[in-house]
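Contributing new records

If you add data, match the layout below exactly. Sequence lines come first and carry their own label; structure lines follow with theirs. Keep one chain per record. Anything else will be rejected by the validation script.
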Amino acid sequence: MDIIIRQETKYDFRAVYSLTKSAFGQENESELVEALRKSHTFVPELSLVAIIDSQIVGHILFTKIVINDPAGIENSSLSLAPLSVDPRFQRQGIGGQLIRFGLNKAKELGYKSVIVLGHEHYYPKFGFSPSSKWDIKAPYDVPENAFMGIELVENGLMNARGTVQYPKEFDNL
């Protein structure tokens, strides 16, 4: 199975919307992707699609976030959300390939870290650890092991402590 991963283009928007809706079984995440594309937190190079036989079967999005230190210092990072794989292609490693490709691309672009709210047994496979390790908290009540971070460079989260501030587009999720 040959998988191509590339940056999303405007011609992919409709397919990504349908894919995300199918993957999550609802439109909330699809609407989030649409809203984030129009946001100042959007990084076009980090909206990636996975393609098999000319069909989009996966999508991953990383957007800019801020970690607010109690002293008022803002540290920048990225959020990984959402990750979508066509249900017919799940459990075949496509999500993992998108994550690895995206993390490498984010590092290439100069980002130092990524935060994710996700499955506590899935994301650690890619190097994510509970964000409490760096004293980084979610802005809402979530299980500690499900809120994770990864340093893309050594000490990428060393001075980033506090509460994550997601883009306002996440408020509707």
